[in-house]
Queue: 4 jobs
Job 1
Amino acid sequence: MQGHPSQGVEMRALECECGEHIEAVNDEELRIRLREHLNYYHQQGEISDEDLERIIAERAYDV
């Protein structure tokens, strides 16, 4: 991807069930971004760090 801010840097990503692509530099940042996405777009109430970590473990991949 020419001009992509992560060009040359390995990133972690996952696709939300709504189809949104979420990407970050590592799993910790991905957890933060996923929480923000769920809270904003899905009005997800309190979701535990453990649940977010489970989702990341099951669905995240390197990009």
Job 2
Amino acid sequence: MTETIPRETFTFLKDLEKNNNRDWFNEHKSAFKEIETEIKQVYNQLFQMLNKHDEIDKVKLFRIYRDVRFSKNKLPYKTHFGGSFNRVKPKLRGGYYMHIQPNNESFIATGFWDPSKEDLLRIRKEFEMDDQEMRDILNSKNFNSVWGGFVGDELKTAPKGFDKEHPAIDLIRRKQFIFTKKYTDKQVLSSNFLEEVNNSFKIIRPFFDYMSEVLTTDLNGVSLIK
């Protein structure tokens, strides 16, 4: 039986948004713990579903407590649940993320949030040599209908050492390689939500296969994995 997001999740998070303080949270901590336990079960089931078609080594449900030390926003609690799923490194690259938030703010995301300096240069060099395979993936009807195009940060001009007139400059300028898909509250609470999320993540696979090959080889295609 597929786990579902408890309706009480949205009720609690909406109340927390209105009462984002430690006194209120401590008074309702038992309710939070019950919801958190159920949410963990949902993320763990998605972990199992992903592992039927990919290799995921761990799932991480992020804490609801905010780190306010270096933030202008001093509210102590997040008003959402979020969790990530890491693919087995070093042979596989990329990751998955699921974000549960009321008022139709839920979404899933996948790709590369913060590639290292070395990985970013390797990706850009690949696009500089040949961007056709990446274009074919992005333009695939099935892929595009689910994920659309990249979101995330990009440079306003060409990175150092690259020609700003290069035909692939739109890809080369990118600093992040992220795809996102939004969900309504009704969709999140439906009985087939996890299946839909899992199927959407399946469709990202050609992109991950391509990027994993790029990031585990040098420019001559020689494996970097020892």
Job 3
Amino acid sequence: MLIVPSDLKDELVYDLAKHYYEYLGSEGVSVGALKQLDRNDIAKGLIAPLHPGAEMFYKEQGILE
């Protein structure tokens, strides 16, 4: 989970979500727990509200519940 201020620009949060998603799908993941995470499940079962920028990215990927 990435926590950002609600007033952070949508474009910036969109880019953060995109880069995090791409990182999770890469060979560069170095944290064991993240290697076990399916990047297509990162928007499932959320308990915190999504920032509009992240929501836009996840909807484009078709992974938002």
Job 4
Amino acid sequence: MEISEKLLCLFSTEVSAEEDRYVIEVPRQEVETGDIDPEEVYRVALISRDESTDTEGTTTPAQPQSAPSEPQPPVDVGETRYVEIEDIGKQGDGIARVERGYVIIVPGADVGDRVKVEVTEVKSNFAVGEIIEETF
């Protein structure tokens, strides 16, 4: 599956029924980090979790997965994220938080910086990101 470079955020959510319409809730973090403006209109793509797409573009049933014993990191190596630095760690690196308070350590960033980072390392409780764009 090819992902557009225009992708602003990616999250899992439920579709809920409200009177004569269906609603998709956007996590507060996506708005607070500046990725989403609640006054704007966005294009939304829905990807089924029950099917996966192979390289030929055809759909095949997804392989059953056992439930992980603990939540998986919300980022992957190579992923890019727009983050705001909220704190400075003991080693002087910037600290950003994404979904569920997961920490991304950003060397060379200062509190208040809003940067685009590429995730270079992922651990169960934190990730490391390299700045690829100073401000956004």
